[in-house]
Amino acid sequence: MKTQHNIPEEVYLEFLGRTVEIHWNYHAILMVTVWFVLVPIGIISLRYFKPKPTKTGITAYRTIWRPEWVWFHIHQWGLNLAILLSLAGMLIALVVSQGVSGSLHSILGLATIGLGVLQGISAFFRGSHGGRYYEIADPEDPKTWEGDHFSMTPRRRRMESYHKTAGFFTMLCAAAAVGSGLMQYPMPILTAVLVVVSILLLGLSVWREHLGKRYDTYRSVFGNDLTHPYNKEREEL
């Protein structure tokens, strides 16, 4: 493996009082695992593993212990873990590089992590859940159905508009960051693994798409009752 001459291989850290060897391969393995394994699994889980819509949707309360919500928690906690690991990888790289190098890889990497953090922040604005057939609601009392998601309030629409759209741009930045990083610091075995994993995840997505498993999130969660606000709004779909 041949590295470019401008990549530091060791650094003196004052808080340790000694020079340490820099293992960039660990950084590369971490970031590839985060952005091309953990993040795609979180996205695919939400996109292709929701339950098939029924009349009532998912009635169980949304907790990590309920199997009906496994797909959601894989997405939620998997992407939160991805953000934390990315931040850790970024901070270590900044420390050993003693700042931002200004390379294309560093700029793309910072953009990716910045967008990733914004994805996590935007999720906090999703609002309340609601639902006519939700476990804590009374199907006969409309006041108990209210929730930002069930009613698709402006707050929820703004969150989804940003969260879903920005996610694609985040993955584009991640692909560019990883690609530029592997060009700067070649790791043939890791590159081969990256290609194989990407093909497998693509194959899984194509297979689930072919089976018709990309269910509408609103209908999977709340049911296909046409009296529901967002179902009524999209009655022609």
Automatic annotation (TrEMBL):
Q: Which domain of life is it from?
A: Bacteria
Keywords assigned: Electron transport, Heme, Iron, Membrane, Metal-binding, Plasmid, Transmembrane, Transmembrane helix, Transport
Name the coenzymes or cofactors required: heme b
Membrane-topology descriptor: Multi-pass membrane protein
What residues does the Cytochrome b561 domain cover? 1-218
Among PROSITE patterns, the record links this protein to: CYTOCHROME_B561
Q: Where is the signal peptide?
A: none
Transmembrane segments annotated in the record for this chain: 26-49, 70-95, 107-125, 165-183, 189-207
Q: Where in the cell is it found?
A: Membrane
Q: Main location per UniProt?
A: membrane
Could you identify this protein by its name?
A: Cytochrome b561 domain-containing protein
From the broadest rank down, the organism's phylogenetic lineage runs: Bacteria, Pseudomonadati, Pseudomonadota, Alphaproteobacteria, Rhodobacterales
